[in-house]
Amino acid sequence: SAVISQKPSRDICQRGTSLTIQCQVDSQVTMMFWYRQQPGQSLTLIATANQGSEATYESGFVIDKFPISRPNLTFSTLTVSNMSPEDSSIYLCSVPGFKGTGDRETQYFGPGTRLLVL
Amino acid sequence: GESVGLHLPTLSVQEGDNSIINCAYSNSASDYFIWYKQESGKGPQFIIDIRSNMDKRQGQRVTVLLNKTVKHLSLQIAATQPGDSAVYFCAEKASGTYKYIFGTGTRLKVLA
Hints:
The structure holds two protein chains of two kinds. By secondary structure, chain A is mainly β. Chain A has strands spanning 4-7, 10-13, 19-25, 31-37, 43-50, 56-57, 68-72, 75-80, 89-99, 104-109, 113-117. In chain A, strand 9 (89-99) and strand 10 (104-109) form a beta hairpin. Chain B is mostly beta strands. In chain B, strand 3 (30-38) and strand 4 (45-51) form a beta hairpin.
């Protein structure tokens, strides 16, 4: 299993500002994922962060709005830039892993960062 | 703290009863499915999984059923307890990919 921490756990920000969210994993992983969970909705993948290369963004998400860093195999940051109230969401990082004897794939999630933009 | 399930479909069950949570998945090429539980203020946690070569898998108090014909998953929780109160998501993945697609989620409320 993987233990993932995120900072900050929550924040209230003014529109037009930017917030950088940190994700720390207790083991080295090749891929890290960033998700957005808007109020009352499911999880939507923003991007995949690989160490040593540019992040891969999903449709509807762009690097200028959500720049990502992946400086090493245990850490990643997601920045939410030029925020508007529509960016109010929970932002989650996750890593792939296995359960049990190793044949059961899963993703391990951090606790999330709860962002409110005023 | 705020809940992630403010506007999600809600299933209310009496403590001790069985719960059934349903999910329709989207991709007929998906061959691996997971049910996640998300408690308030936490990230989703793995509950149980199933591969497409099975139609049923049982865990401790939980059972997942897969109907590939109609692209439908269900999660059954036996003897529902107050600690089962959470939002439940299904997630699907196709072979050869690493991306999961998450379903809309259902909030389970256990009534004492």
